[in-house]
Automatic annotation (TrEMBL):
This is Enoyl-CoA hydratase. InterPro entries: ClpP/crotonase-like_dom_sf (IPR029045), Enoyl-CoA_hydra/iso (IPR001753). Keywords: Lyase. Its EC number is 4.2.1.17. NCBIfam families: PRK05870.1. Belongs to the enoyl-CoA hydratase/isomerase family. Pfam families: ECH_1. GO terms for molecular function: enoyl-CoA hydratase activity. Coiled coil: none annotated. PANTHER family: ENOYL-COA HYDRATASE, IP11341P-RELATED. It is an enzyme of class 4 (lyase).
Length: 253
């Protein structure tokens, strides 16, 4: 079986699956580049409103290919990062459906998504210390931003692993999905459904604004940042149509 990123655009969602079963979905340079290209195709497809990233069972992603990692210079490391950095920079909402081990670069791939859902066998394993390797790809920034300094330090400095349950408790994963991989992916599709139903430009602009406001320290600055895109959405035909439909439903009660 050829290792690949399986890309499926269906019902408003791009489902991207790292499919390399012999290596437990480890990211080779080719797979990383292929994942970045798949993210770009999803962004370019106007029918897609959200992206789900997952791994072919039983793993999520066992990390970077160790041979490529061992030979890498600065440019090579950036090539290793390319796949998960594309997910991190994606203009569409992203969900990581984690059904198995997410190790090293696989942990970074999970960190790169906006939201994480976990199945019973999910594990988040830093493994950098075990290899005598400094974290890379922005792991220290992403983990502190999502987990806070204490839990991020436990992972980066002490190699602490998070199970599915502890990931939810720590706020790393949104929720636990009790079931097989298909149930996990379906839960991710269900989560994505409101974004699929919404006007695509509103989804895109909301994600842009969330990135803009995440570093702000004052409420007033966030109000200002939201003003122009909210006015644009108020002027759009989609808002007028949906407002009229909602009024009609209310009046018909």
């Amino acid at each position: 079986m050829t290792d690949r990123i399986h890309s499926e655009h269906d019902q408003g969602v791009a489902l991207l699956t790292v499919d390399a079963p012999k290596s437990r979905n480890a990211l080779t340079l080719d797979l990383s580049a292929e994942l970045a290209a798949a993210v770009a195709r999803a962004e370019a497809d106007e029918s897609v409103h959200a992206v789900i990233v997952t791994g072919a069972p039983p793993a999520f992603c066992a990390g970077a290919d160790l041979t490529a990692l061992g030979k890498a210079d600065a440019e090579g490391l950036r090539s290793v990062y390319a796949g998960f950095l594309a997910v991190a920079g994606c203009t569409l909402p992203t969900i990581a459906a984690v059904g198995g081990a997410a190790v090293g670069a696989g942990l970074n791939l999970a960190l790169a998504a906006d939201v994480r859902l976990v199945g019973p066998h999910a594990k988040f394993i830093p493994r950098f210390l075990e290899l005598g390797l400094h974290p890379g790809g922005g792991m220290t920034w992403m983990s502190q931003r999502i987990l806070g300094p204490q839990q991020a330090s436990a992972m980066a400095l002490f190699g602490e692993t998070l199970t599915a349950e502890s990931a939810v408790k720590a706020g790393f994963a949104l929720r636990f999905v009790d079931g097989d991989h298909d149930a996990l992916v379906q839960a991710a599709r269900d989560l994505a459904a409101p974004a699929v139903a919404a006007p695509r430009e509103v989804v895109l602009s909301t994600k842009r604004t969330m990135r803009q406001t995440s570093g702000l320290t004052e409420h007033a600055a966030a109000v200002d940042a939201e003003l122009a895109p909210q006015l644009e959405s108020l002027a759009a035909p989609a808002f007028a149509e949906r407002l009229a439909a909602m009024k009609a439903r209310i009046s018909g009660r």
